[in-house]
Amino acid sequence: MSILILLLVVLIVVLGVADIRRNLITKPVFGIFKKILPPLSDTEREAMEAGDVWWDGDLFQGKPDWKKLHAIPKAQLSAEEQAFMDNEVDTLLKMLDDYKIVQEQRDLPPEVWQYIKDNGFFAMIIPKSYGGREFSAIANSTIVSRIATRSLTAAVTVMVPNSLGPGELLMHYGTQEQKDRWLPGLAAGKEVPCFALTGPEAGSDAGGIPDTGVICKGQFEGQEVLGIRLNWDKRYITLAPVATVLGLAFKLYDPENLLGERTELGITCALIPTSHEGVEIGDRHFPMNMAFMNGTTYGKDVFIPIDWIIGGPDYAGRGWRMLVECLSAGRGISLPALATATGHLATRMTGAYSYVRQQFGMAIGKFEGVQESLGRIGAYTYSLEAMRVMTAGAIDLNLSPSVVTAIAKYHMTEMSRTLLNDAFDIHSGRAIQVGPKNYLAHGYMGIPISITVEGANILTRNLMIFGQGATRCHPYVLQELEAAANPNAEEGLQQFDSLLIKHIGFALGNTFGALWQGLTLGCFNSSPVSGETAKYYKQLSRMSRALALSADFSMLMLGGDLKRKEMLSARLGDVLSHLYIASAVLKFYEDNGRQVADLPFVRYSIERNLFEIGKAFSGFFQNFPSAVVARLLKTLVFPFGIGYKMPADAVTQDISDALLKPGVIRDRLTHLCFIGEGDEDPTGLMESAFIAVHQAQPIMKKIYAAQKQGTVPRKIPMEQLIAKALEINVINADEAKQLVRMNELRFSSISVDSFKPGVLSKHSL
Ligand SMILES: Cc1cc2nc3c(=O)[nH]c(=O)nc-3n(C[C@H](O)[C@H](O)[C@H](O)COP(=O)(O)OP(=O)(O)OC[C@H]3O[C@@H](n4cnc5c(N)ncnc54)[C@H](O)[C@@H]3O)c2cc1C
């Protein structure tokens, strides 16, 4: 006992007396810290510093304040935005024939281009003072999503000018003169923008672009002016083939020090009219058969005046930071909107098809194998919608949460890939045969595009979510890194000293917290609500604490190596991501008034999130370089083993049942899905068939009863069955007419397109 007291006193003296602590602990730890965490590169630092830490910070630090989550206002459309949805968006959707656009015209028809330009679809983010619509992020997301349920090509065309590009960059950084010069034309659709960063040698590693600009004097409009001589070669640029204004990223050099003392200024962004001498808009690409405009641009020794730099000469070399800051907003809106659209479309159409399509004498949606896939489609769509709304909502709070938007981009596009595969499996041949009737094919073809753009997914999962998340969301690491980088060593040591004490307290709190919650299985954690979902809050708090502990240990043990150990760190990123997805789902459920019908969707979603968290931790412990530390961590966090399981089959069946019948939950879950009018429209036809088959059930029951009695034969074609039932008065003439109509719709909706010989050779796929 006395030894313990003595140890405690020594500890208090060592930690409590500043000089002793600094010499005995802080100095050596600081030395080790500097060694294991190499200084950040400029691009890394700018990426880390750009944007905001939001709810991801709470989740990462082990103590999510759920009341704070609930207090975040629910993102909603204004009356003006809703009117735009009901009028302009609706009109546009009725103008779109995606089969013709993609397979025949390979472009939007001229009248669609004109409608988009004339009605402010390119001006959603531009302020009203410049003639723009000045819509919120949630409106931008909702509009793009709804269009994407009709035509991915149209959605991407609308999305790009409202995402990272000239408009966004001008609004944030443009000089007044540049704003006045460009924004009214962009808002009116007279100018079409594109933004060129990617080239053959630099894709993911965008900081390594070889395109150059050299500051020099040259001739512009008959006068000698200070400017930049540019050389670039870019590819994959969306809207480039039709652009009138090119946003260009290049590395700027000032060898003659015409602008200042620095000779290497770094990445810079400029706006260049495509009509400017020397600007070449090259050939068009053909991305996965999609018809949106995408192509190349290049230029050799093109001279531009210096004030074409976005933000003017003051912003020379600040392009990387500008891009990183703006990318995060776009990443949280555009790709999530497209991903959610696939969910809305797939849920509505696959549910309908599973009911209409019969095999072995019953609707295929009654088979458990199909229910498993259908349940996943529905649950993923619920999660997607929840994430879409919450993430766009953050951007509407004027935040730029870079980790959260990376999570949304990666997970939502991956979920969309999974659910489209499920939709394809269920539709089988009906989804494979491309033609006007196929409402899924183009979305399926387009998925790899969503996976690739705005941060290719492997990189996003492995580097951005945890790599940036760990440093940004951690309460002390970024400041510790700054202390280590302080050129004044003594000042750095002092900064580090005060952070270290707090960091030790944080780590101890997490260690004991994780153990306590592990031993009690989180039962004593608080929940902001009572009822069915309370248990989920408790488990998520517990896993948040486990993440805080594991992340700290990993950074301590692996230091800078953690960045290279992508497989390991990505698993911690998965934990953070699933905590975020689950938070969005719980908030969505609350914001929508805790609808009982939502419960199966909530159960499936959160139980899957917890299961994925368990899986990620399991892989993390298994592969952690030190087996002893891994065992220690595992014992602290999961003393009784990882017990999370995938949702029970009954939950999956509850979801698939809900998608097999018309109703409020189906309508709510697919509210963005555009249903065309009439039997000629592929979605309209499937919806009509679905309703008709449902409405015919009471009449069919009479026929089934007659079949049981043996008065009507079984296993005969439907037309004959209806005729026979009418003949022997099992059904009346009106009922027979209804069944005939139902049968026509049913047959037409399960039919696929076929083409006369020679037709396909005219426009090869
Ligand atoms: C249809 C389409 C439209 C586009 N529109 C534009 C546009 O308008 N403007 C523009 O500038 N660009 C645009 N892009 C470019 C897009 O942003 C790039 O394709 C993307 O950055 C990936 O670059 P890459 O294709 O060269 O792949 P690469 O960079 O060659 O990557 C290949 C693979 O390696 C992975 N990878 C790379 N580095 C790492 C790492 N450190 N850790 C883990 N994995 C890694 C990637 O995730 C990817 O899976 C577009 C691309 C497409 C396909």
What does this entry look like structurally?
This protein is α+β, with helices and mostly antiparallel strands and 765 residues long. It has 32 helices and 9 strands. Strands 1, 2, 3, 4, 5, 6 and 7 form a 7-stranded mixed β-sheet that branches. The protein has a two-stranded antiparallel ribbon with strand order 8-9. Strand 2 (212-220) and strand 3 (223-238) form a beta hairpin. Helix 15 (402-427) runs antiparallel to helix 18. The longest helix is centred in the middle third of the chain and has 38 residues, at 319-356. The model has no long low-confidence stretch (mean pLDDT 94). Flavin-adenine dinucleotide binds next to strand 1, strand 3, helix 17 and helix 18. Its EC number is 1.3.8.7, 1.3.8.8. Residues 471-755 form the Acyl-CoA dehydrogenase C-terminal bacterial-type domain. Belongs to the acyl-CoA dehydrogenase family.
Quaternary assembly: single chain
- What characteristic shape results from the CA principal axes? flat
Sheet bearing the most strands, described?
7 strands, mixed
Low-pLDDT stretches: none
What percent of residues are in strands?
A: 5-15%
Estimate percent helicity: 55-70%
Individual helix count = 32
Structural class comes to alpha+beta
Distance between the termini: 82 Å
pLDDT averaged over residues = 94
Write out the distinct hetero groups bound to the structure. flavin-adenine dinucleotide
Overall radius of gyration: 30 Å
The total of beta strands comes to: 9
Domain Acyl-CoA dehydrogenase C-terminal bacterial-type: 471-755
Domain Acyl-CoA dehydrogenase/oxidase C-terminal: 317-462
Pathway: Lipid metabolism; fatty acid beta-oxidation
Domain Acyl-CoA dehydrogenase/oxidase N-terminal: 81-190
